[in-house]
Amino acid sequence: MDHLFPIIFWSSAVLLLLLLIFFPRRGMLARFKEYRQARQREQLEDTLKYLFGGQQSGHTLSAAELAASLQQPVARTVDLLKRMETQQLIENQEGNYRLTHSGEKSALHVVRAHRLWERYLADEALMPLENVHSMAHRREHGMTVAQVNALDAALGHPLQDPHGDPIPNASGNFRPHDQGSPLPQWQEGKIVKIVHLEDEPPLAFAQILAAGLQVGQVMRVMESNATRLVLTDGQDEFTLAPQVAANVFVSERSETAIVDEDVIPLGELADNQKAEIVRLDDQCMGFTRRRFLDLGFTPGTEIFPELQNSFGDPRAYRLRGTLIALRKEQAAQILVRPQLYQ
Question: Nearest CA to 100 among 66, 51, 149, 146?
């Protein structure tokens, strides 16, 4: 029997190895195929998104341009484009590629998923804005229409992502939105509102965030020349290089829009000072906005801080007969008008 032991051992080892490799659904081969299919789907969806972005800007893309965006060899990109042509997602126009009607529909699905994920990550996961794009890119792929619709509904059907880009609805249509124009195009003295922050290239986007700018801010252009642009919100000044400022898109606002002196964030309300809720901040969206509205944080409602926390946070507020605790970052999203007479 001893002489049979090596045969039994190695036969068992080979059998185990074959099971590890070829076991249905869980074997190494099945998992490799699954990974390869997922990777191919990601590349296809990324290509749809890049082509859609190009067409939104009024131009088509070549195989070389797409290869650079996908960070892969041109030959592999050409093979991918051929497959997409076979699926009637794109068409070749003298070396440049355009989306077909079917391709545009698929691209809008990916764009919608991406921007909804960005909204979720910024509002609910409280992820730093410079990180939401890359994380949303990883999560957008392979989502079904039903899954994207569910995410949209859970977020309260937001109109734009944290960068100010519009989010298409379930029909693939964009709601009316203000596209704005690059900040360097505006003259000194103009009152403008930030409507979009371009997140490419990442270095410029990081400088915009480091300066403290965000979508929804209303500013006055104090200085605009070939060296720098200086903005103010009535309290602080923000300085940008023209190349960086070109990634900030703004639209004109009235003279009275820059500051509403009697409106303050709820968190700045003095102890036992009564106030009237004016509105929720424009950047308060998704689950957080719905939660505030469900709790009664609606315009015209009286509110005041009641219980003090020795640590300062959270702070309790009396609203519609109910005591509600809010953290500082939550209270900052609720704008109120202090009452002059108690």
Answer: 51
DSSP per residue over 237-291, as a string?
A: EEEE-HHHHTTEEEEE--GGGS--TT-EEGGGPPTT--EEEEEE-TT--HHHHHH
The arrangement of secondary structure in 264-338, i.e. its CATH architecture, is Roll (2.30)
DSSP at 226: S
Nearest 5°: phi and psi at 90? -140, 165
Residue 74 CB contacts under 8 Å (≥ 6 apart), including other chains: 63, 64, 67
H or E stretch at 67: helix 63-70
Q: How far apart are CA 265 and CA 281, in angstroms?
A: 9
Three-state DSSP at 156 gives coil
Please give the pLDDT value at position 39.
75
Structure tokens that stand for 37 in this block: 């299919």
The pLDDT assigned to 301 comes to 92
| Residue 338, beta-bridge partner list | 275
CATH architecture of the domain with residue range 181-257:
Roll (2.30)
pLDDT of amino acid 117: 95
- Quote the pTM value: 0.71
Q: What is the CATH number of domain 28-99?
A: 1.10.10.10
Range(s) within the chain of domains with CATH label 1.10.10.10? 28-99
| Segments of the chain scoring below 70 in pLDDT | 1-5, 9, 18-19, 21-23, 27, 29-30, 32-38, 254-261, 309-310, 340-342
Q: In what order do the strands lie in the sheet with 322-326?
A: 264-265, 334-338, 275-280, 302-305, 315-319, 322-326
263: left (phi over 0), alpha (psi -120 to 50) or beta: beta
How many beta carbons lie within 10 A of that of residue 80, not counting itself?
21
Task: Give the N- to C-terminal CA distance of the chain in Å, as an integer.
Answer: 98
Distance (Å, rounded) from C-alpha 226 to C-alpha 323? 53
For residue 8, report the phi and psi dihedrals to the nearest 5 degrees.
-65, -45
Predicted confidence at residue 256, as pLDDT, reads: 52
